[in-house]
């Protein structure tokens, strides 16, 4: 097969063989390859070029994601796997780990702290949110244990938000109780601050 190339948006090159567009690679991957336009190529050579291009594009995509916010390894893998083959995802994740840009232990601590400080979630809900982002076991437990959690603070925040008083109706209390249960607080902790039986 004879290889040819076309310019594409974003500093990329479309790779064609026998006039048919096959895939796109970043310019640097094309120029650093031993291939040149007009060369006769094998499928194996094209496969190596595509693999290099996919890995580079996956890493570039991961950088963009991390520029917006921190991610766990699981989150990054899940998002990248929608657009790239497993080998490219593995390569990108490995490079990010080497650069220190993804670290699940650090992510878990920052994320747990944010959920507690910003949303006043209880440990039970924080653990659920960590698990949803692929953080499990000891890493998740360590992140929660690193927090100085006072359940009273979160419960009082909700009481103030819903403007509960001793005059509040059962319906108003129920609404606040549902919110607190959803935030991970136990019924026994909630009942210390909201008179449930009134």
Topology:
Elements: E1 3-8, E2 12-17, E3 20-26, H1 27-32, H2 43-68, H3 73-80, H4 86-98, H5 104-119, H6 123-132, H7 137-145, H8 151-161, H9 170-182, H10 187-191
Antiparallel strand pairs: 1-2, 2-3
From the helix content, strand content and strand pairing, which structural class follows?
mainly alpha
- Give average pLDDT, whole number: 92
Strand proportion: 5-15%
Shape: elongated
Note the total helix count: 10
Order of helices and strands: EEEHHHHHHHHHH
Biggest sheet: strands, sense, closure?
Answer: 3 strands, antiparallel
Number of beta strands: 3
- Please tell me how large the radius of gyration is: 26 Å
Strand order of the largest sheet: 1-2-3
Poorly predicted runs of 5 or more residues: none
What share of the residues lie within helices?
Answer: 55-70%
Distance between the termini: 82 Å
């Amino acid at each position: 097969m004879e290889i040819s190339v076309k310019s594409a948006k974003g500093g990329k090159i479309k790779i064609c063989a026998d006039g048919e567009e096959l895939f796109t690679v970043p310019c640097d991957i094309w120029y650093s390859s031993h291939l040149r336009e007009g060369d006769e190529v094998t499928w194996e050579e094209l496969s190596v070029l595509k693999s290099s291009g996919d890995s580079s594009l996956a890493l570039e995509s991961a950088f963009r994601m991390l520029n917006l916010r921190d991610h766990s390894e699981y989150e990054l893998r899940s998002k990248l796997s929608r657009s790239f083959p497993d080998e490219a995802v593995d390569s990108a994740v490995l490079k990010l780990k080497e650069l220190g840009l993804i670290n699940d232990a650090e992510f878990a601590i920052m994320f747990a702290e944010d959920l507690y400080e910003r949303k006043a979630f209880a440990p039970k809900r924080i653990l659920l949110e960590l698990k949803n982002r692929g953080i499990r076991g000891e890493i998740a437990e360590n992140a929660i244990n690193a927090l100085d959690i006072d359940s009273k603070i979160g419960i009082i925040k909700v009481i103030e938000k819903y403007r509960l008083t001793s005059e509040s109706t059962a319906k108003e209390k129920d609404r606040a109780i549902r919110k607190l249960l959803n935030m991970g607080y136990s019924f026994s902790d909630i009942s210390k601050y909201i008179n449930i039986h009134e």
